[in-house]
């Protein structure tokens, strides 16, 4: 039990510090053989076909993107938190940005890149978390 608590605390501390690289986890079946793109609806865990990898969009803690019906000087940025895990191992949170860096992170020799966050904001409208989804690209680090 203490090991689980320590591991969870480590993930929280690393995520809070903005660190996007995790120690290598040597698990069979976690290898992504080539380029994979997947859309993750908010809160829905998705297993990557042919692997033991699970991904989940856990949060969108910041969304300051320019609304589509407004002329902005800057496009703005959104921050998303995507959880990734291999098998029954611990979930590691990756914080990725739509405009700023980091837009991608490496985990277990896999590069995870945020390609898109939807929906786009509209002036005067509020996006509830359940409406969000992200498009993510996974590829082996070469």
- Overall number of structural domains: 1
Distance between the termini: 36 Å
Radius of gyration: 16 Å
Number of strands: 8
Which range best describes the helical content: under 10%, 10-25%, 25-40%, 40-55%, 55-70% or over 70%?
10-25%
Strand order across the largest sheet: 1-8-7-6
Spans with pLDDT under 50 lasting ≥5 residues?
Answer: 1-27
Fold-level CATH name: Tick-borne Encephalitis virus Glycoprotein, domain 1
Tell me which CATH architecture applies here.
Answer: Sandwich
Task: Write up this protein.
The protein has 142 residues and is mainly beta. The chain has a single domain (2-23, 30-140), classed as Tick-borne Encephalitis virus Glycoprotein, domain 1 (Sandwich). 11% of the residues lie in helices and 39% in strands. It is built from 1 helix and 8 strands. It has one helix at residues 2-16; strands spanning 36-41, 46-47, 53-63, 78-86, 92-97, 104-107, 110-118, 133-140. It is elongated and about 45 Å long. The model is unreliable at 1-27 (pLDDT under 50).
